[in-house]
Records
---
Amino acid sequence: MEEKSRVLVVSGTGYIGRRIVRASLAQGHPTFVLMRPEIGLDVDKLQMLLSFKAQGARLLEASLDDHAGLVAAVKQVDVVISAMSGAHMRSHNLLLQHKIVEAIKEPGNIKLLLNTIFRMQRFLPSEFGMDPSRMTHALEPGRVTFDEKMELRRAIEESNIPHTYISANCFAAYFGPNLCQMRTLLPPKERVLVYGDGNVKAIFVDEDDVAAYTIKCIDDPRTMNKTIYLRPPDNILTQNEVIEKWEKLSGKVLSEKIHITAEEFLAPMKDLDFPNQVGVGHFYHIFYEGCLTNFEIGDDGAEATLLYPEVQYTRLDEYMKQYL
Ligand code: GNU
């Protein structure tokens, strides 16, 4: 059996990145994690990196600003996965990924001259949310994430870099147990705000499953240069269904269900802090517009649970049990 593809994870200590490192190791890939000097005194990140090394990963030292170091890292692997966060939209963190594109392009030139063995066969940029190509109408300021992701896609495609985009819909932790409420990650006790009639379908995915499906994709010809949507059937749920599941699990009915219109939901936007302005936009598109479920997957896409039926994904009610 030929050696499994070698994977380099950038932002391997992040919210989804750490799960991708673990999934890569668990699925038997030689796994490399970029160790960036920018972590400075972030002792938690360093110790997470050391724990990955103890589990068999190899740490590659390079800053994203160190082009030569990045080229050297990329040349050692077959697949590069970036999991950089877009949660802090002001930082334009996602734009750092253009340096990865520059590094991936470089050995390609060398190959033309020296015919070196250039291994890199696929780049997975940091997507993992709504499909940014379908969010050109998105509200300010949350639209910045989608615009930055599209800018990177253009750079990747102009450079003919083989790629796969992962559209993972809603990270369960941010949208599930809180019954889709904003500004909290915990279930409400009495009152719950219901968006419109609460019957818009959204899609909730356990973050460990996002990582498992991502690693399943990397060697699959069926996912080459495609967008892979994660739509676990049992987790395609309306907000009402999410509330129902929680009420059944907790054995308590929420006393107040307050329905709010889109206008009422959007009205306070201007008075909120930036992260919540971003969140309001995202929640609006998800729970009023239904942006995750209001389209059919095209020929440039595929659906992960159909490609990999062997993955036993976590149902949302299972996920919610830990919050009881
Ligand atoms: C989730 C959010 C939830 C915001 C990421 C405001 C991209 C990422 C961890 O889209 O802005 O209540 O990494 O009141 O890379 C939003 C974003 C979460 C919703 C962060 C996200 C996380 C996006 C809220 C809220 C639960």
---
Amino acid sequence: MFAYSSIEQYHAQLQEGQVDCVRAVLHYTARIRETASLNAFIEVYEAEALDRARQLDAKRQAGAPMGKLHGVVIALKDVICYKDHKVSAASGILENFTSIYSATAVERLLQEDAIIIGNCNCDEFAMGSTNENSSYGPVRNAADPERVPGGSSGGSAVAVQSGCCMVSLGTDTGGSVRQPADFCGIIGMKPTYGRISRYGVIAYASSFDQIGIFGNNIPDVAQVLQVIAGADEFDSTLSQKPVEDYPALLQTGKKYRFAWLREALEHPSLDPAIASAIKEKIESLRKEGHTVEPVEFDMLEYIVPAYYILTTAEASSNLSRYDGVRFGHRTQQPGLDLTEFYKQNRAEGFGKEVKRRIMLGTFVLSAGYYDAYFTRAQKVRNLIRQRTEQIFAQYDFILLPTSPSTAFKIGEKTKDPIEMYLADIYTVMANLAGIPAIALPLFKHPNGLPFGLQVMANRFQELPLLEVSAQLMRR
Ligand code: GLN
């Protein structure tokens, strides 16, 4: 039997010889087979992971020092490149494409002795909130297989939720780590924009995209973040700020100033059971001596439209590179001229939601509409940033729900894309403002499904965010 609780405990067991990395990998590959119907994994690197486990065991037994993630079994979202392994962004247009280099985050995991177990299903090009927009089919929520796990990093979330790996990486452009974490009852953290390199991450919307981490406890998330964060010569949008030693510095027991957004907790779309659980939590924090106050945030109605205008505009540009010539799906249809050839490649390769967003993005950038949509949405983004800054001048954290509802049924929202977009109301704010945010699995709904609390902090305040999260998770 192999039982996992945290990296720290696993490392202690490795050092005492109670377990080894091979046993860990065998445990996870067996678990992946048992849960195959959830469709969380696209490919499992079984033989390779076992080889690496054997090497790590030999190295450790020979007395070599252990890396910070020695033997830690990690799954990657299928938008994160891993050299010589397939990566497709769950899209037909990248079918059979093999990464020619590894993402910086992956390089750093490997340098610290991590074991990559496989790549996980997701929404095509990370566009979606349910993992139903995948060329590999939907992922199922282990809490109820008739329900979605959330998206777009649904596979990475379910991989952790169903015990198929210790931690996993996803990406969060508008909530794709936090919302599936919320639906699956695990932790999902999106760091500050500019904290983790995007080099080797297939782009959706470059000024929003950020790698995020799924785990079962805060010290694990803190450790992975510490390893993968920090300056990288291949990504000029990264901050040069030194990375703190999050796991070592984590302290709890502090008193904080929390703000909560009245408009968010009183929003008509919010499930009443979610609203009341969060209000109760607010009360109990106050009783414990924290400052917890409501603040006005009158921009909630604008954040989803601004997000979808800006991200689709960026996506239409980012995805123009998939033309079937340099790489990507190439049509078999004969006798096409160059323009028809491009069109046919893209028509065959992309799925419906991606096409919708490319068209929307092209429209908002087109002459005559640019100022009305794109420029205006940029202004909204600036206002949101300013307003967020003002809140953080007075408070340490903002408390919010992560999603207005618990996990919905597979197929329930696919007919109405607008309804699906509106469900991103609580997560996109952090991406518009570039701030870190975390989803913490604190509650159970009367319907039996998990949901949590979202905590946001100011830019580069990952350490206090992890500290307060550890404190909140402790009860
Ligand atoms: N649900 C959001 C969208 O569809 C978020 C996606 C993401 O964060 N990658 O765009």
